[in-house]
Design goal:
This protein has 352 residues and is of the alpha/beta class. It is 41% helix and 17% strand. Bound molecules: nicotinamide-adenine-dinucleotide (NAD) and uridine-5'-diphosphate-4-deoxy-4-fluoro-alpha-D-galactose.
């Protein structure tokens, strides 16, 4: 199958691209590198020894999308491109609506014009908001509590209306829980710009001595040890869910939203202990006030993924933390260890 991967140079995109290529699909990456490095693509090429195309473009640039799609003629799109920081979405809501919602509408329009009717979309557990019951199943009410989550909620609605407009359109909306970890090679992984907001990259940077201590946002939640509990999912398992979704979409028509998690939760203290075990280092921490907008527990009901996609997570938190540490220790500055942002232009020429 020919698959266009928007945002394919990013954290989840690069891991998924690798598996798409390993499944012998052809791929075109469409990315503006606003939050990624072409070095990730060079490493995917090194790991797979398979060639793929790369277009440097913004999904809101309909002409660029049309040009790429007319020449590549994708049979399916995996759509990762977009902004993903909850905090930033509170201060820059219009940028989030533009990149995420407008970007997706432009993509769907280009798909209509070029006869591509299949999309796998990156949504998030954040669409659910405060839990009315746990685990979250896909019918749980959607009441996101921040602009980022609302962009995902609105995109889901746009995609579902789009699919309903023509029998040949198909969408699989994957609602990721908390993606962590890295490829076992330690060659590709998460490259957060600046100080990480998310727990695991923060803890690995503390273990590496780059940050002094973790601040735990509250230990008075109704969980096993009082700290927040999340359903962490290994990025390798998540990538495999996309391959399964592409396969499913080739056999089905309609629109389905599917949770991607493990169905099990881990608390902040449990994650600290796993990174300490993986790294052999102590992770100093202090307890501070709850972070605004955080919830106590988020855990996926994963039965639908198993039923429809025949997919189930294989890795537990020990493996997630081991691979996260392996990536961090091999690449202390992420992709900038070998090539700073000033070299993006030359690297881009090399991978394009
Ligand atoms: P990422 O920032 O690493 O990857 C996003 C990629 O899209 C980057 O390569 C970036 O350069 C590119 N991009 C951004 N805006 C673009 C635009 N307008 N045009 C073209 N390319 C653009 O993020 P990620 O963690 O890999 O997340 C991928 C997707 O999964 C996002 O849509 C995100 O909202 C969603 N998601 C992520 C998480 C998570 O915790 N990482 C959780 C749930 C959902
Ligand atoms: N936490 C800390 N200290 C930190 C960072 C996080 O104690 O420095 C705690 C949080 O309070 C929470 C847990 O660690 O209890 C996980 O926090 P993350 O920021 O890693 O993840 P969230 O569950 O808050 O959100 C993430 C993404 C969202 C996405 C959501 C569901 O940031 O974009 O998972 O997929 F929508």
């Amino acid at each position: 199958m020919r698959v266009l991967v928007t945002g394919g140079a990013g954290y989840i995109g690069s891991h998924t691209l690798l598996q798409i290529l390993q499944e012998r699909h052809e791929a075109l990456v469409f990315d503006n590198f606003s939050n990624s490095s072409p070095e990730a693509l060079r490493r995917v090429r090194r790991l797979t020894n398979v060639d793929f195309q790369v277009t440097n473009g913004d999904v809101r640039d309909e002409d660029a999308l049309l040009r790429a799609m007319r020449s590549f003629r994708p049979e399916a799109i995996v759509h990762f491109a977009g902004l993903k920081s909850v905090g930033e979405s509170n201060s820059q809501p219009l940028e989030y609506y533009s990149q995420n919602v407008v970007g997706t509408i432009k993509l769907l329009r280009a798909m209509e014009q070029t006869g591509c009717g299949t999309i796998v979309f990156s949504s998030s557990a954040t669409v659910y908001g405060e839990a009315r019951y746990l685990p979250y199943d896909e019918s749980h009410p959607s009441q996101p509590t921040n602009p980022y989550g609302r962009t995902k909620h609105f995109i889901e609605k746009v995609i579902s209306d789009w699919v309903a407009s023509r029998p040949e359109f198909t969408a699989v909306v994957l609602r990721y829980f908390n993606p962590v970890g890295a490829h076992p090679s330690g060659l590709i992984g998460e490259h957060p710009s600046g100080t990480p907001n998310n727990l695991v990259p923060y803890i690995t940077q503390v273990a590496a001595g780059r940050l002094a201590r973790l601040r735990i946002y509250g230990n008075d939640y109704p969980t096993r040890d009082g700290t927040g509990e999340r359903d962490y999912i290994h990025v390798e398992d998540l990538a495999r869910a996309h391959v399964a979704a592409l396969d499913y979409a080739s056999r089905f028509s309609g629109c389905e939203a599917i949770n991607v998690g493990t169905g099990r939760g881990a608390t902040v203290l449990e994650m600290i202990r796993e990174i300490e075990a993986a790294s052999g280092r102590k992770v100093p921490y202090e307890i501070v006030a709850r972070r605004e907008g955080d919830i106590a527990t988020s855990i996926a009901d994963v039965r639908k993924a198993e039923r429809l996609l025949g997919w189930k997570a294989q890795y537990g938190i020990a493996e997630m933390c081991r691979s996260a540490w392996h990536w961090q220790s091999r690449n202390p500055n992420g992709y900038d260890s070998s090539h700073g942002p000033e070299n993006h232009g030359a690297l881009l020429e090399e991978v394009s």
